[in-house]
Specification:
Shape: flat
Largest sheet: none
Distance between the termini: 43 Å
Number of strands: 0
Number of helices: 7
Strand content: under 5%
Length: 131
């Protein structure tokens, strides 16, 4: 299908770019993964997001907002795949990083709380979703 062809071409181009420049493609991998997630290509999106997470952990460290963003995106994919416990672990890791680095009063922290609430709703754990 058209989406798979586009995906394969884009991944090849990213690999070539990374080889030529020595890195710096995590944002492109992230954006591609989000696009694939929106099209229901969860397994492929998950592979790209895990690669993005590895790159961001190496480049920025474990406590960086870009690393937290990758954890959260992985959590969202796991939730869409019905793997709610894995989704919770990823979102909680993202939340820990965001709280440690940015504090409670940030929009990205609120977004993670929203994702956590959605996961608890998916698990029919409504009391936890309200906390």
């Amino acid at each position: 299908n058209h989406l798979r062809g586009w995906y394969m071409t884009t991944v090849k181009e990213l690999a070539e770019e990374e080889a030529a420049r020595g890195g710096g493609v995590s944002s492109k991998l992230f954006n591609l993964a989000i696009s694939l997630r929106k099209h229901g290509e969860y397994a492929t999106a998950l592979l790209l997001l895990k690669s993005c997470l590895r790159r961001r952990r190496t480049r920025f460290g474990e406590q960086h907002k870009k690393t937290a963003e990758a954890y959260s995106a992985i959590g969202t994919v796991y939730d869409r795949m019905g793997e709610h416990d894995k989704a919770l672990r990823m979102q909680k890791e993202a939340l820990k990083i965001r709280l440690d680095s940015r504090g409670k009063q940030q929009p990205d922290v609120a977004n993670i709380y929203n994702e956590l609430g959605n996961i608890f709703c998916s698990k029919s754990e409504y009391d936890k979703a309200l906390q």
